[in-house]
Amino acid sequence: MFISELELDVRYYETDQMGIVHHSNYIRYFECGRSDMMEKAGLPIHKIEEAGVVLPVVGVECRYRQSAKMGDRLRIVSIIDKVPLAKLIVRSEIYNASTGVLLCEGKVTLGFLDARSRRPVRCPESLVQVIEKGI
Fold it and tell me: Which residues are registered as beta bridge partners of 111?
C-alpha cells in the first residue's frame, strides 16, 4: 500500500451560506491529495506528462459521511493499493484533522493515454517503480 497525507484548511469560498463545504469540493480535495502524493514521491504529474503520457480521470466515487465546515482543518489520505497496469486507482479518505472523524471517502480512477495519439497505453515504468517502492 502506498499512502500519503496532506493537511488543508477549509477556505471560505469552498463553503455555502451555512459555512458547510460544498459537495463538489471533496473531489478537488481528492486531487490535492493525489497531486501532493506524486510530488512527495518525486514524480509529479507534470513529469509524467512531459514523458508523453496523460492521465485522464475516467471515474470518481465519493461517499459523504459528515460535513466539513468553515475553519476546519482537513487531513486528506491518498492510498494506492496495487501497481496499475492500464488504470490507476487512488483511494481517498478525508478526515477532520482536529477530531479524527471521517468526513468523506472515495476513489478516483485514472487512465493512461499517449499524449499525442490519445490512445491507451500501459502505466509508465517510472510510476510503477515509485508505487512499488511504497508498497
Answer: 87
Residue 102 grid cell: 471521517
Average pLDDT, the chain: 95
**CATH superfamily, domain at 2-134:** Hotdog Thioesterase (3.10.129.10)
Rounded CA-CA distance 70/74 in Å is 11
C-alpha closest to that of 94 among 84, 80, 104, 108: 104
pLDDT digits (tens, 9 = 90+) for 63-108: 999 999 999 999 999 999 999 888 999 999 999 999 999 999 999 9
CA angle 60, 66, 69 (to 5 degrees): 100
Contact 1, 80 (CB under 8 A): yes
pTM, entire model: 0.93
In the numeric block, which cell numbers belong to residue 126? 517510472
